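Deliverable D4.2, example record:
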Amino acid sequence: MVFTWIFLAVLALATATRLWLALRQVRHVRAHRDAVPGMFADAIPLAAHQKAADYTVAKSKLGMVDTLVDAAVLLVLTLGGVLQWLASAWESALPLQSIWHGTALIIAIVALRSVIGLPLALYRIFVIEERFGFNRMTLRLFIVDVVKGIVLAIALGVPLLVLVLWLMGAAGAYWWLWVWAVLVLFSIFMQLIVPTFIMPWFNKFSPLEDPVLADRVERLLARCGFRSRGLFVMDGSKRSAHGNAFFAGVGASKRIVLFDTLVDRLNPGEVEAVLAHELGHYRLHHIKKTLGFSFIVTLISLFVLALLVGESWFYQGLGVHSQTLAIGLLLFMLVAPEFSYFLHPVGTLLSRKHEFEADVYATSHAKASDLEHALVKLYNDNSATLTPDPLHSAYYDSHPPAALRITRLRTT
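Output generated by the structure prediction step:
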């Protein structure tokens, strides 16, 4: 089959590119391991810089293993016949063309891939993160998180999957538009419920108690004309020593969240600058723009799926002879990331643009020097490399490299 060879060529090229970029990252970081970049020399000790380099290399090597495992699993599922075998096995209990057969098959494949990926996830948390002093996750907490994730997937994901499969079969030639509308509404729904219902199931959120910092933040919010459901401190330290801050939700559910590790590490002026950056994302409509971009990508993907789902060569080219809407959807979910991989830098470029814009906004409502100092502390505390490979960074990093970001802040 011609499509079989096209699929193999794309998979090989995407896998080779992933490995090549990872090797570039490893070599570049190692080559710059023994000297702190000049602009950071006064703030970051050599030992911390070397730790960041070793941490980056360790994660990159694990990523390379993950890349090879994913490629092998994809080949085994498709051309190796495992997907067809599972489809036939479920057919003995459920009619092949039924929604329930498709639902069971997709759940089985998702579960199988999750189980296969479990050892690498455990290694990342309990070996790499542990080795570099970041892990605070216990095995019990890991298991609890997995169970909660499964419960959420069953409660939210399964009904959505059943609805999508029903629409694919019942909504006619333009089913993809109906599915797209459902997915858009579901995404908006998740934006509303994640901050107030789902995230508190995993972490504890407490109002900011430091009166000096709270007063400073309230004045910042007033200057920015921002109203939210509150400013919360999240107990991120129970899982990791990494620090962060983020903006969650839309409409009345929106809230600002600070990791407790970040509050403990930064002074009030630096926290204010980080919050000003997060508020910049909201004020400049970055969240809406990102959602809109994802909606466009989803629409295009569903249109392509609609063209493929009725073509026998699509199924046979991927090693499957049973042809159903659910199997077509599943195959598309499996192989689309390989075909779209080379478009990844487009999303990265958009994200970096938003980060620069949020930095500019922050400097108009807080001190640029405070934001710079906060970023340097976060780079140091999180062991983020200051010397990433430029090409690897341009391909993957949603945030600009440290040196470029600080340079922009100093010239703003």
